[in-house]
């Protein structure tokens, strides 16, 4: 039988690797945890919600400012395989970071199949540019901005890291102080043969333009590339391959699985100020103030 992708001969084999819900117990609904954490964050933290950063209704972001002025900032890009969920489902990301004195920005974007992955990448880049230019008005320090994401958001984070920020946006070429990528997708090719294809509609051009393994560039931003130790071998391989191409450009990156975590629990650490995720971000953002260079409002 001919191979669809690498050693995989059938869609069922690829789905078994790339549909994390198949590994959950029948009564396990990780969305309930996200919803409760999001409600807790919005109830207990000051938030400025639904700020437009682009021309369409989906292009909004939510800011949870730190208590002190000139705070470091974390931009979070949510998952959902580019076709589900919203920023409001992930307000809980701010819980642990707020306790560390970090302002959190949760980005919303339009979803497939209403828009393409190319358009989602454009929207996330536009959101980052907006934050870099405007976060000072919300108490954030534009010289200490980190970025991160989960699942499809890990992919979108990697796409933002390979952006030509000076050429395309008039911003510093490497504007981020750190990046954390959790359970990301960096080679989109296998998803063309998965249950997701009717919704995300991949073709060869989309895969080539939007697979971070093909577009890594020299970048001074330190990365933590991580995933759940209980995830499938393909999620581990995706992170390992991206780590390899990132290092090949002379860049910095830590590669480390989270023991016992699954695809959905791998981001729970953002809710706990003492977790590895929050501690790593705090260390990166507090360690060395960076010049704001040319970051300013247009």
How does this structure look, described?
The chain is α/β, with parallel strands linked by helices and 298 residues long. 34% of the residues lie in helices and 17% in strands. It has helices at 11-18, 30-44, 94-99, 117-134, 152-161, 165-169, 197-200, 204-210, 233-248, 276-287; strands at residues 48-52, 60-64, 71-77, 103-107, 140-150, 178-182, 223-228, 253-258. The relative contact order is 0.16. Helix 4 crosses helix 5. A hairpin with a 7-residue loop joins strand 1 (48-52) and strand 2.
CATH topology: Rossmann fold
Overall body shape? globular
- What is the terminal separation in angstroms? 57 Å
Q: In what range is the share of β-strand residues?
A: 15-25%
Query: For the record, what is the CATH homologous superfamily label?
Result: Alpha/Beta hydrolase fold, catalytic domain
| Topology, number of strands | 8
Just name the CATH architecture: 3-Layer(aba) Sandwich
Element pattern in H and E: HHEEEHEHEHHEHHEHEH
For the biggest sheet, the summary is: 8 strands, mixed
Radius of gyration: 18 Å
Overall mean pLDDT score? 95
Order of adjacent strands in the largest pleated sheet? 1-2-4-3-5-6-7-8
In DSSP terms, counting alpha (H) and pi (I) runs of 4 or more, how many helices?
10
Low-confidence stretches: 289-298
Fraction in helix: 25-40%
What is the domain tally? 1
